[in-house]
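Summary for the lay section of the report: proteins are chains of building blocks that fold into shapes. Here we show the chain for Distant relative of cell wall-associated hydrolase and then a coded description of the shape we predicted for it.
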Amino acid sequence: MARRLAAASSLVIVAGCATRVDFAPEPGQPALRMQQRLLLTPSNGGLRITPEDLRPGDIVLSSTHSVVSMGVRLITLAPVSHAALYLGDGTFVEAVGAGVRTRSTQEYMDGESTIVAFRHPGIAEPQVGALNAFSRLHVGKKYNTAGIVLQAPFSIGRQYCELPLIPGLVRDFCIRGLAAIQLGAVKNDRFFCSQFVLEAYRHAQLPLTTADPRLISPADLLHMREGDVPSVRTEQALLYVGHLKSGVAATEVEMAAGADN
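The coded shape description reads as follows.
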């Protein structure tokens, strides 16, 4: 028993990711849950879906084989580097270097190597309408370059807040406090990808978290999925819908470090 506990403790320390202690309802024994750093794929229990399975309002996380995408994944220790919204009628909306834009399903499928979809369980027609209105209003807005530049050092510094066994409330307070210092208080009407998704959902009265959208990365959205351990407090866990593409090489996933639970 002692050996097992020592092995588990060593694994947690090496993983260096957010954790949570859950209690089983019947035996009442504590169970340590670790943040899932590996992406569920069709090859390890995930689902393969098609664009026809998407619904308006779905949150789509993705990555490419580009140097920028790999850099983001290395900094955030996650297998995704980009976030977008599916608006329905074969249209995606996203914030990229050129600004907020829409892309057709075919363009999106051709441009990304890995694409995975998540869904807010409480979304309904009124919220879908609000997401569409917000997105159409902001198409053409400039990219939040300053915000994404500040994200890099912040993503590295915040890892101290996510050391294993730090309680969730302490972790949340630490990350938000660090964001207030490193990201500053000045805001503008520009967006980077995950910030746009968070602001759109906030506008639709379905906030995913009360945290400042500027501190949320695609990796944070990934960890908001049901059954995972989020880095910041969430208002609603996202449902995993499935993978439209799963082209990230195994070696790249391994570089993300950590172990799935």
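Put simply, here is one thing we learned. Confidence is low (pLDDT under 50) at residues 4-15, 248-261.
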